[in-house]
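Lecture notes, continued. The same structure-token format from the folding unit now serves as the input rather than the output. Read the line below as a description of shape only.
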């Protein structure tokens, strides 16, 4: 059984906009006081508007009758002045009105810009403070959509809200002025506004539904576009097949449909309002005439106020319609901000000055409760050692790396630092002491120096150059067109894969870490590039604790000990020659490597 249709009552309207304010209010911050000031300015603007309309009506009446002296203004205001003086007064009021309107236009624009900046800043802070579990679960393009389209639309709501508040206050100010001139006119305005609101409420509900769909589809579209960028190379190689083109066309159509419906209602509702309002205006003039208001000046003022009221009524309707479109964006942003804030990284409170020993004690871990990945892993490594980590795919190597980087937390057990639980130490110190070179290093669009420094202001140019020397890259950088000021980027063709890997090694070394973790540092390199990276790592032996996740046995040649992982368990940790004798997997990959094949 379907529920009875609920017509928009004042209580429901207040409840709806109270809900909207609860979603929107947190975005305003310090702008709330400015909205209050703007509201006061709108009331003043409405009064000035009413006075100006009354002056125009009186001047028009006097001119039409050939008078040089204006004896009275419409309504209860008694005023007598020469026509020329009244013209000058009217021009002064008009200039004041113009200045006031410019100020009323600037205030919401400045608030909107401030809200967008604050919102993007808040999103960035909360996203970067969220745990890696939350960050890594986000589909590509989602955060980009929040920072761009969603933030822009939410900031536009500030302007829309301000315009709506201003229009409402000026409308009611004119309504009060209309009571002074003609009580029947004011009653007609109230009745007409109520009729228009009830008539257009169903369209407003439909628009909110289309706007919610549009907000959701914009996010999905941004994710799809991000995926297109990431797959650009593969698309060039394999070609854009018919299925791929149909998938892209499907994404476009999913956005087109709610966009069409939303934009149509944005234009149709105000136009419909205007047509109905003119009909009601003519009806109101008929009633005013029948009520006996036949004085030309009074009737002229009434007409001007009615027309001007229609303008502000249309603005109110347009603002309400636009807010219906923007509310879903604000709700999505509010949920994202709360989601990030509810899943912040766990931090410690103790300083970490130096790492001498790093390990795990009886660590279990799983990405979810149903899928355990690591089982009772325990080991310890000391500063100066080089520890290799090997095992088949899915053995838990990457999970160990993420736990040692404190990107994730163990389900049970502890990551130990100097025989103490690693969670006790501040993350800021941990990031400084433990560095990382990923298997697929990412480059910034910027100079070589910027890429090595990576937004760390405490790293000097001398530190950048020293790190490049340690990574065996300094001489090659000097041979580039602008040396350390050469601009490179993720898709730049200026550097090879081996240079990219060593540049990111220099990035990791620039902070002078105690622990350096490398995930498959040579897996995608040719023999010459691999040798260059190996030489760089060999020079660091004895200075830092090196942990190398590797598939190539050649990468393990500098290791003091090797950890062998299998099915999430530590099958052994010992010198390579001991494992060659005692561990079947290590012996197998060594034999495969010696036979000239790749390790599985």
């Amino acid at each position: 059984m379907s529920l009875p249709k609920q017509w928009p009552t004042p209580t429901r309207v207040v409840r709806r906009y109270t809900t909207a304010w609860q979603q929107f209010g947190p975005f305003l911050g310090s702008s709330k006081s400015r909205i209050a000031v703007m509201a006061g300015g709108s009331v003043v603007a409405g009064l000035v508007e009413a006075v100006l309309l009354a002056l125009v009506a009186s001047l028009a009446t006097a001119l039409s009758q050939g008078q040089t002296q204006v004896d009275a203004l419409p309504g209860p205001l008694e005023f007598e002045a020469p026509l020329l003086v009244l013209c000058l007064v009217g021009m002064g009021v008009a200039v004041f009105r113009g200045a006031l309107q410019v100020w009323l236009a600037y205030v919401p624009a400045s608030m909107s810009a401030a809200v967008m900046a604050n919102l993007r800043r808040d999103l960035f802070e909360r996203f970067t403070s969220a745990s890696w579990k939350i960050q890594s679960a986000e589909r590509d393009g989602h955060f980009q959509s929040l920072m761009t389209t969603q933030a822009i639309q939410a900031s536009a709501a500030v302007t829309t809200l301000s315009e709506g508040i201003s229009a409402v206050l000026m409308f009611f100010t004119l309504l009060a002025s209309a009571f002074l001139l003609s009580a029947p006119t004011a009653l007609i305005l109230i009745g007409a506004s109520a009729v228009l609101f009830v008539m257009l409420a169903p369209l407003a509900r439909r628009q909110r539904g289309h706007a919610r769909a549009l907000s959701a589809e914009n996010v999905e579209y941004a994710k799809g576009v991000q995926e297109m960028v990431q797959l650009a190379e593969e698309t060039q190689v394999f070609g854009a097949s018919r299925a791929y083109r149909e998938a892209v066309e499907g994404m476009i159509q999913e956005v087109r449909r709610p966009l069409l419906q939303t934009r149509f209602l944005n234009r149709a509702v105000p136009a419909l309002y205007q047509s109905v309002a003119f009909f009601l205006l003519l009806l109101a003039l008929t009633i005013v005439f029948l009520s006996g208001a036949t004085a030309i000046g009074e009737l002229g003022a009434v007409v001007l106020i009615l027309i001007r009221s229609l303008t502000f009524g249309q603005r109110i309707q347009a603002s309400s319609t636009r807010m219906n479109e923007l509310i879903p964006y604000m709700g999505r942003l509010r949920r994202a901000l709360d989601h990030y804030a509810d899943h912040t990284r766990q931090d410690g409170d103790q300083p970490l000055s130096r790492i001498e020993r790093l390990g795990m004690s009886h660590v279990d871990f799983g990405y979810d409760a149903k899928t355990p990945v690591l089982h009772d892993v325990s080991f310890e490594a000391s500063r100066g050692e080089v520890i290799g980590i090997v095992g088949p795919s899915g053995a838990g190597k990457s999970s160990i790396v993420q736990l040692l980087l404190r990107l994730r937390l163990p389900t049970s057990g502890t990551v130990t630092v100097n025989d103490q639980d690693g969670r006790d130490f501040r993350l800021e110190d941990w990031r400084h002491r433990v560095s990382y070179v990923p298997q697929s290093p990412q480059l910034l669009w910027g100079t070589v120096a910027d890429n090595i420094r990576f937004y760390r202001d405490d790293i000097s140019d001398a530190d950048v150059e020293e790190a490049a020397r340690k990574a065996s890259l300094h001489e090659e950088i000097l041979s580039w067109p602008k040396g350390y000021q050469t601009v490179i980027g993720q898709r730049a063709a200026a550097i090879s894969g081996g240079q990219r890997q060593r540049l990111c090694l220099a990035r990791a070394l620039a902070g002078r870490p105690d622990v350096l973790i490398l995930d498959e540092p040579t897996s995608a390199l040719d023999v010459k590039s691999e040798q260059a990276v190996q030489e760089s790592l060999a020079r660091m032996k004895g200075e830092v604790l090196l942990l190398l996740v590797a598939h190539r046995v050649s990468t393990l040649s500098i290791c003091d000990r090797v950890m062998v992982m299998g099915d999430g368990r530590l099958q052994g940790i010992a010198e390579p020659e001991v494992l060659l004798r005692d561990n079947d997997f290590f012996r197998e990959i060594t034999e495969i490597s010696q036979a000239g094949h790749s390790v599985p």
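Point for the exam: Residues 357-441+512-594 form a domain with the Rossmann fold fold (CATH 3.40.50.300).
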